[in-house]
């Protein structure tokens, strides 16, 4: 019986093992194993809501072990250290508890087919001081760490009186930085109802810093322009064409030697695949550690290794690479499932073609803007307001359906609706 190992339980990885489990694991035609360094899955586009306390990972996350039991695959908790493609093995780091005691030793796991879906991490571009002084939003643990720091800062300025203001600086004008900026204002306003009557968005100073000429560089100009206007209307200081050269305890220094003071500093400027990926012998990688693949999403040297999601460098016909987005991870997962199934039947494999179905940016309760259709109809349809918000929420619901099925996903969505009525709208601990 063949062993299929998927490393990384993000949007693409979890959807893939769910399909593999139902097609091969349930019928005992293959052993399906998911490896992740976390116990819980959260849809990555929602991490900025975890970071502000708008979303509680304990209520909205998916426990891998429980999910595996219901969807016919195995789950192993561990951090990938390396891969040996020649011997078809991978090594997981030892696992320790909070006291430093080793729970599991370093382990070696064999595979017949390997799918690398390890996602991405923030790219600090070697900027001095960033690792020491900034918060990142690469995982729900990092998001929760920021949420605790944010709550402590809100408590501090509330106690200091009406003149005190919380200063936040966010480096990176991509979707994460833009959506986080708006969500922070929303959270500050909501705190009025939770024991901080003097709190409001007016007591938060947020500076969004982008090195490029405009925010949301990967999206159409119209979306970026409207998002910029909405952020400025909220009170965000949008600094474009501003390059950060150093982070220090209390702020950032820019290339023109200006200092931007901040109580909390968030780094969301660009992504790269984890550093260990570049050390895997025999795999071609880009300067951002992404693994180069053929059109079938197999690596050039090893046909039994597939790559999906943010760590995948798949070149398109125009010479550009497929963007690291949730929709591309979803499409890649579907294609790799089809190709693994085809390989079992000795049928030809399919080539991957990225289909851009548009982009949406959600500015909390204030606005949602985006474009739909993309390549689907050879053009683009701009949307905003309630329709855009509905489509944005629908993307998450489609992800729930992919990993749970229609019935359970519907139950989960209903439970989340009820939970918003009976539970606090903010995570306050």
Account of the 3D structure:
With 429 residues, the chain is of the alpha/beta class. The protein folds into 3 domains: 2-120 and 273-345, 3-Layer(bba) Sandwich (FAD/NAD(P)-binding domain), CATH 3.50.50.60; 140-271, 3-Layer(bba) Sandwich (FAD/NAD(P)-binding domain), CATH 3.50.50; 358-422, no CATH class. 34% of the residues lie in helices and 24% in strands. The protein contains 11 helices and 26 strands. It has helices at residues 11-25, 47-52, 57-60, 64-71, 130-133, 140-160, 175-190, 221-234, 326-344, 385-404, 406-422; strands at 2-7, 30-36, 40-41, 62-63, 74-77, 80-84, 89-92, 95-96, 102-104, 107-110, 113-116, 121-122, 166-171, 204-209, 237-239, 244-248, 251-254, 259-261, 264-267, 271-272, 291-292, 305-307, 312-313, 358-363, 367-372, 381-384. The strands form 9 sheets. The protein has a 5-stranded parallel β-sheet. Strand 8 (95-96) and strand 9 form a beta hairpin. Helix 1 packs parallel to helix 10 (385-404) and helix 10 crosses helix 11 (406-422). Residues 373-378 have low confidence and may be disordered. Belongs to the NADH dehydrogenase family. It comes from Marinomonas rhizomae. Residues 2-333 form the FAD/NAD(P)-binding domain. Its cofactor is FAD.
């Amino acid at each position: 019986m063949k062993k299929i190992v998927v490393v990384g339980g993000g949007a693409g990885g979890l959807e893939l093992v769910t399909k593999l489990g139902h097609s091969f694991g349930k019928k005992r035609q293959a052993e399906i194993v998911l490896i992740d360094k976390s116990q819980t899955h959260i849809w990555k586009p929602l991490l900025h809501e975890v970071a502000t306390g708008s979303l509680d990972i304990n209520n909205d996350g998916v426990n891998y072990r429980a999910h595996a039991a219901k969807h016919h695959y195995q789950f192993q908790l561990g951090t990938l250290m390396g891969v040996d493609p020649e011997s078809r093995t991978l090594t997981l780091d030892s696992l320790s508890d909070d006291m430093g005691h080793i729970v599991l030793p370093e382990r070696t796991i064999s595979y017949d087919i390997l799918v690398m879906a390890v996602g991405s991490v923030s790219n600090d571009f070697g900027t001095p001081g960033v690792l020491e002084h900034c918060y990142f939003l690469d995982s729900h643990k990092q998001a929760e760490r920021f949420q605790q720091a944010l709550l402590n800062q809100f408590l501090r300025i509330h106690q200091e009186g009406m003149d005190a203001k919380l200063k936040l600086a966010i480096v990176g004008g991509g979707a994460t930085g833009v959506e986080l900026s708006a969500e922070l204002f929303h959270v500050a306003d909501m705190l009025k109802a939770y024991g901080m009557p003097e709190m409001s968005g007016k007591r938060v100073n947020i500076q969004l810093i982008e090195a490029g000429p405009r925010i949301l560089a990967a999206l159409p100009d119209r979306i970026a322009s409207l998002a910029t206007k909405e952020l400025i209307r909220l009170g965000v200081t949008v600094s474009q064409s501003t390059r950060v050269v150093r982070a220090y305890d209390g702020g950032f220094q820019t290339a023109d030697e200006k200092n931007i003071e901040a109580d909390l500093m968030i780094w969301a400027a660009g992504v790269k695949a984890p550093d260990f990926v570049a050390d895997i012998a025999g795999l071609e990688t880009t300067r951002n550690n992404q693994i180069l693949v053929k059109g079938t999403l197999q690596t050039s040297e090893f046909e039994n290794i597939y790559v999906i999601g943010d760590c995948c460098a798949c070149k398109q016909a125009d010479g550009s690479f497929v963007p690291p987005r949730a929709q591309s991870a979803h499409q890649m997962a579907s294609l790799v499932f089809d190709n693994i199934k085809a390989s079992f039947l000795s049928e030809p494999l399919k080539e991957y073609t990225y289909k851009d179905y548009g982009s949406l940016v959600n500015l909390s309760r204030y606005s949602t803007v985006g474009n739909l259709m993309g390549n689907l109809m050879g053009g683009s349809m701009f949307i905003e307001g309630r329709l855009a918000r509905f489509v944005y929420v629908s993307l998450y619901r489609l992800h729930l359906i992919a990993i749970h099925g229609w019935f359970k996903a519907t139950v989960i969505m209903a439970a989340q609706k009820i939970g918003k009525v009976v539970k606090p709208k903010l995570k306050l601990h």
